[in-house]
Structure formats: C-alpha cells, structure tokens
Write a structure and sequence with these properties.
199 residues; four-stranded mixed β-sheet; 9 helices; globular; CBS; CBS_dom_sf; CBS_dom; CBS domain
C-alpha cells in the first residue's frame, strides 16, 4: 500500500467570521509569601528540562539558554543522569576567563565541563519539605545560599533520585508581582523583599 492510499487529508473547516479567539496561555498564578511553595516551582514532569552535554562549547550553552529563555542548563551524561549545571553567570562571567588563563588557552576552546558546577558540589531541596513550605521559605532558602535557582529532587518507586522541579528567583518575583529591571541577584532579592515587607 502506498503512503498516498494509507493516509487521507483531513477535511477543511472555515475560520468563523464571527471571530476566532486565542486561548489564554497558561500563566502561573499570582502568589504571596504565604502561598504554597509548590505554586512557584517549575514542575519538570510538565515542562521539559533544559539540558546540554558536557562537551558543548560555552557559546553553544549561551545560545541554548537564550533560545529557551532560561538562565540554567542541566548538564547530562550518557544515561541522562545529571552531572552538573551551568548558568549564564558560569558561561559569561569571569569564571571562563580565569579557567582559560589558568590553562593558558582561549576562552573559545573551553567546554561546558570546564566551568559547570559538578553534581558533587550541588545541593537540592527535598520535594517532601517543599510540599510543606511557603513561598517565603523558598525566598529565604535562595537568599541564604546566595543563589537565584534551587533544584528539587525526590525518590522514585525504583529508589532512584529524580529531578522534579526548579525554583527561580525571577519566576518567583514575577508571580509575586515584582517588576524586575535586570538580572542582578542582589537587586532581585531586594525587590522581592520590598514586596514581602509591604505584605
């Protein structure tokens, strides 16, 4: 049987002259500091994880982040296990310059593996703790660690640990109604705290 005989084209329908409307895209709910923390977590069972290989160039990592609209990529190994993370700061900050100088090489020759935070230096939040926490707890955790991201892990039925979600200070700020002007971590937290203080 030829492909032409196997598949038939679908019938057409007309676009309504009375109006064809756009559906509202999913928008994360507006929250306050007492809201459940889970409401500001990006659920990685619903949203694909942004990943990259360790041997990718820093330019490839930066391009991947720009295209996906994220500021963090999970670095994955051959079995799709996490071997590290790389952020825009890791790719574009002073870290690549220092590594290149130490190795007497060009920045353009560096790979993700050269500047990523390896898995053994990463820590995470446990999903069971997150389920009991509020948005304010997450903001406090990010600030205490001096980070703008926190990953959330949990154990599967197979006893393996899985990456379940990620918190982003900028996402939390948006859901709190904070208008961010730039990406500096200190300013992000200052603006979030201003909202918290006004609650």
């Amino acid at each position: 049987m030829s492909e032409d005989a196997q598949f038939r084209p679908l019938p057409k329908t007309s676009v309504s002259s009375k109006g064809c409307y756009l559906l509202e895209a999913f928008n994360p709910p507006v929250v306050n500091v007492d809201s459940a923390a889970i409401l500001v977590m990006t659920d990685l069972s619903q949203v694909p994880s942004a990943t990259i290989n360790a041997d990718a160039s820093l330019d490839e990592a930066n391009h991947s982040m720009l295209v996906r609209g994220v500021r963090l990529l999970f670095v994955v190994g051959e079995t799709h296990n996490i071997i590290g993370v790389i952020t825009t700061v890791d790719a574009l900050g002073e870290k690549p310059v220092l590594v290149a100088q130490a190795r007497q090489t060009k920045r353009s020759e560096l790979r993700v593996a050269d500047v990523m935070v390896p898995v053994e230096k990463m820590d995470a939040l446990d999903i069971e703790e997150v389920k009991k926490a509020s948005v304010g707890n997450i903001v406090a955790s990010l600030k205490a660690d001096g980070r703008v991201h926190a990953i959330v892990v949990g154990q599967g039925k197979d006893e393996k640990q899985y990456l379940l979600g990620i918190f982003s200070a900028s996402q939390i700020a948006r859901q709190l109604g904070v208008q961010l002007h730039g990406h500096e971590m200190a300013r992000t937290f200052a603006e979030i705290e201003a909202v918290i203080a006004g609650v």
